[in-house]
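Box 3.1 A note on notation
Throughout this textbook, protein chains are presented in two layers. The first layer is the amino acid sequence; the second is a token string describing backbone geometry. Keep the layers aligned when reading.
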Amino acid sequence: MKKNYYLLVFVLLLSAATKAQTAWVTKNLDDKLSVKFPSEPQKLTRTGIDIYTAKGKDSVGYSASIIDYEVLAHLDSATLSSMKDTQEFADQMKTGMATTMTKYTLGDIKIGKWRTYTAYTISGTDNATKSTVSMQMVIIGTKMYTLSCIVPAKVSTKDNETFLGSIETLKK
């Protein structure tokens, strides 16, 4: 009888945890991708870049942005296609990030695949506060989609993994 009781409690707790994740808000970034945020994100457009941001109850910061290389750097998809899989291109992106993220020490940028698209991952640490940033970037056509998660020092969470793993293609 105790086994059945514990099994029932386990199943109820598991279903409660599953429901907690479904409370996240799905945000369509454009007509190609969506991402789940812990709450409704705020949208900001700065120099042609759309940025969505939200903060979790545990002070973890989440953001997603869209950069169109054709608009910002005049790179068409054919030109970008020949460059995007090279370490040189990835290192140039890291150098660009380092100029705007001056208080962070960034690790190596890694090239990989997300579905069939070129993807990059990088993480870093804020030199003063010791918070960590994790970033995942995906290039589709001329657009780069960047997901960032900033976790304050001494905060333990798996929500950053939930966020970074929530990117989905939209059905046409």
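Helices lie at 2-22, 69-73, 77-83, 87-100, 159-164. Confidence is low (pLDDT under 50) at residues 1-21.
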